[in-house]
Amino acid sequence: MENRIVTFGEIMLRLSPQGNRRFVQADTFDAIYGGGEANVAVSLANYGHDVAYVTKLPQNEIGQSAVNSLRRYGVDTSCIVRGGSRVGIYFAETGSAMRPSKVIYDRAGSAIAEAEADDFDFDKIMNGARWFHWTGITPAISDRAATLVALACKAAKRQGATVSCDLNFRKKLWTPEKAQSIMRPLMEYVDVCIGNEEDAELCLGFRPDADVAHGKTDAEGYKAIFEQMAHEFGFKYVASTLRESFSASHNGWKAMIYNGSEFYVSRRYDIEPIVDRVGGGDSFAAGLIHGLLTKPTQSEALEFAVAASALKHTIPGDVNLMSVGEVEALAGGDASGRVQR
Q1: Cα-based angle 66, 71, 76 (whole degrees, multiple of 5)
Q2: What's phi and psi for 242, nearest 5 deg?
Q3: Where are the alpha helices (DSSP H) in 47-166?
Q4: Which of 6, 17, 31, 331 has the fewest C-beta atoms under 10 angstroms from its C-beta?
């Protein structure tokens, strides 16, 4: 298929206490499926793109449930390899006010973590691909997964596809030293780099002048670091969300982008109350991919991405279930929340 988008990574089973309950209060858990690149694939499918998600899942009912969770939104699952022993699990507790959300992983030995290079024919998978997206979570899963990411990137470049990466540092998966040893060489293949101030520092060794923990995210502090990143790695675009974290329930949200010559800072959204911030970065990445593929300017692409990710904070679960029209309404200035009849 021509002009399709491919994403590659791990989809996991998410188990969450209902509402804002703590793990120790839970008698039941809501079960859904999600993961960085899978969340991006669902958003892009909702925007009308031909998008394929690639991973490895066990040949059992839990693996099939994960596949079905993607199919229901129109994601192409034909390149998912079946095999391995388990689906990774993560437990997510939704915080409120001054109590932060919490994630506990149970993902060791998952099918994708133990996958082999000969499980995937990446040249076939990337045939006709216009865009390939991955996140820094995937190479952090295991050394085998890191090798698969490199193979996928090389195949994508052979097909002439644009490659985007959301850096997504996860301290529970690897150290900054290990991350930089893997991620910096992979940047050779990346055209569009997405990451916040922590990701840039821990994955690539760049430190912006920003204090996000105390709500200070001056976009000016990012300009020099974006220039350095673009110069060192040859990125066509560098983008970052800028989250002002006042509490678990109240965030300020904007973003900026640099195309090698011009910087653009988006409008700011005040998000309160937050329903679920998991997947907020993935919804931004998907919105940016859509924007860069369909909008005439980087500013319009970024405004679409920021609006999409602001809306995701209002939806329970990992995936953003907004249409292009709904996102564009917000990006165009309609933040009233009035009932649509």
Answers
A1: 110
A2: -130, 105
A3: 61-71, 122-125, 137-141, 143-158
A4: 31
Q: What is the pLDDT of residues 86-101, one digit of tens each?
A: 999 999 999 999 999 9
**Rounded distance between C-alpha atoms, residue 193 and residue 185, angstroms:** 13
Say how far residue 244 (Cα) sits from the centre of its chain: 19
Under 8 Å CB-to-CB from 280, ≥6 apart: which residues? 241, 253, 309, 312, 313
Structure tokens at 24: 């120790």
Strand ranges for 231-278 from DSSP E = 237-247, 250-258, 263-265, 269-271
CB distance 305 to 284 below 8 Å:
yes
Q: Could you tell me the pTM of the whole model?
A: 0.94
pLDDT in tens, 45-65: 999 999 999 999 999 999 999
- CA separation for the pair 271, 78 (Å, rounded): 37
Q: For the chain, give the percent of residues with pLDDT over 90.
A: 89
Residue 214 CB neighbour total at 10 angstroms? 10
* Cα end-to-end distance, the chain, whole Å: 38
E strands along 126-219, which residues? Answer: 129-135, 162-166, 192-194
Which of 53-64 are b and which e, b meaning 16 or more Cβ less than 10 Å from the residue's Cβ? Answer: bbbbbbeeeebe
- Biggest CA–CA distance in the chain, Å, is 54
